[in-house]
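Hi C.,

You asked whether I'd gotten around to modeling the 167-residue construct. I have! Everything is below, sequence then structure, no commentary in between.
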Amino acid sequence: MRDIIIIAAASENNALGKDNTLVWHLPDDFKRFKTLTSGHYIIMGRKTFESFQKPLPNRTHIIITRQKDYKVPEGCLVVPSIDTAISVCPKEEDIFIIGGGEIYRQSISIATKIELTRVHTEIEADTFFPIIHGHDWQLIKEIFHPADEKHSFAFSFLTYAKRDLSE
């Protein structure tokens, strides 16, 4: 069965970004994002897509927008909703939801996994990650990365799995 995976980097106060940009530069987080999402379908909102200089290589981009006349970038699919985005993905392949804040809020209830980089700071932002409720999610893996010459902030790679609430 495929996983619907939310992937994000958020501060301790769940900040994602400000003015449609990331508020930190963490090269090891970028490497992890590339490793996990390469070769997969990635779903994002229009603003997230527009924050890229160009489509990310080796991924199929699905852009969610309500704009009827949105110019479809070559190699990308444009859809009106998260449900439609998921429906156009192959049923047997994992899907990554990469943002932004509103798309995360709409998809957290249907996601099966969360790959979160928790940045150990609090940042002023205008876009936030939804709260991860412990009764819905179980932390299954955690890797700490200290601040260093390439990373201004310490951070942890956290993997959450949706709890089986039928037990």
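If it helps when you're writing up: Helices lie at 27-37, 46-50, 82-87, 101-107.

Thanks,
B.
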